[in-house]
Amino acid sequence: MQAAIELDRDAFRAHSTNFSKTIHLHRSVARLTGKELRRLTHIAKNEDFGLLGGPPCQGFSVIGRRDASDPRNRLLVHFFRMVAEARPLFFLAENVPGILAKNNDSVREAALGLVESRYSITGPLTLAANTYGAPTSRERIFYIGVDADRMDILDPSLFQPPKRAEKVLVGDALAGLPIRINPKHYIDGWRKVRVARSGPFADRLWGHVPPGVGEAAALDRLRMKHEASGNLGTVHSRKVARRYTAVGPGEIDTISKSRRLVESGFCPTLRAGTGPDRGRFQAVRPLHPTQDRVITPREAARLQGFPDWFQFSHTRWHSFRMIGNSVSPIVAERLLSVIRRVIEEEVA
Q: How many CB atoms lie within 10 A of CB 178?
């Protein structure tokens, strides 16, 4: 990864920790031109590159207010403006299914209209993470475009799930993580973990680390001591814990709205909550399949498809925001590997 742009300070720090060799720009894309992007990220004039973006989705989400006038919606337009100005070889844009709603037609059309004359666009593609081998049923919308003068259009069938994609369930993902979490005893979140299954998902929990990626201290701690961060518990009152006891598999607590995860099923979409500009509201977190508590950040990370060495924040709130706002790494790897293969085949 050549460079990353992020305005949220905590997400910026976390990404810098995991990708220390990457150029990081702490600024809004709304105040960045394509020319500046190339200059600040050291991309040469004739150098091919890809531009990836996941503009804020809260204004589009069917779970939220679905406010078409939400100013964050304009960041979708700014992303495509960046594509038009920087002229990458390809781009990939991700958002929530609500982006396709009728009341979002104007902002979506304005964004795509900036690049339609130059780019061949594949999408919208509606992809569910569990069909690619992730333990979550999370659905997201993707637009993938290639410069029509430099590449052929990408057939949508290329991005369909593998025919024999691994089926990873909640129980598979959580296997090997500590079950009993005392939030008062483990305030730093580092606990012993293990890989208790086999297969592509399990292999990536500790392995498949790209060169130059990952925090050295976290990687060493995982390999030498078998410890991972993020095992942060939430303090529940006795009353709340008793109430959670009555919530069966797949059922929802009537007060907190937390759903009990089912070991033999997929995790529903994990939510991010709101940032400081929106009141810092905590997202509703699922209940552990067998324990009367909400899941930890590390459990959420596994359910989203992150490896155990990946570092988030030292707080639960920031960690859940990052995980809830993310694309499953399993889906991202699949999509980008397809694009890379096509580019390499065309060059050959």
A: 18
Q: Tell me the C-alpha distance between 8 and 324, whole Å.
A: 14
Query: Pairing mode, if any, of strands 90-95 and 50-53?
Result: parallel
CA 216 to chain centre: 22
CA distance 73 to 107: 7
Q: Provide the whole-model pTM.
A: 0.92
pLDDT in tens, 195-252: 999 999 999 999 999 999 999 999 999 999 999 999 999 999 999 999 999 999 999 9
Nearest to 312 by CA among 13, 54, 4, 1: 13
Residue-range domain boundaries for the chain: 3-161+328-347
Q: Does domain 3-161+328-347 have CATH number 3.40.50.150?
A: yes
- Dump pLDDT digits (tens) for 185-194: 667 899 999 9
DSSP annotation of 190 reads: -
- For the annotated catalytic residues, the residue numbers are 57
Q: How far apart are the first and last CA of the chain?
A: 23
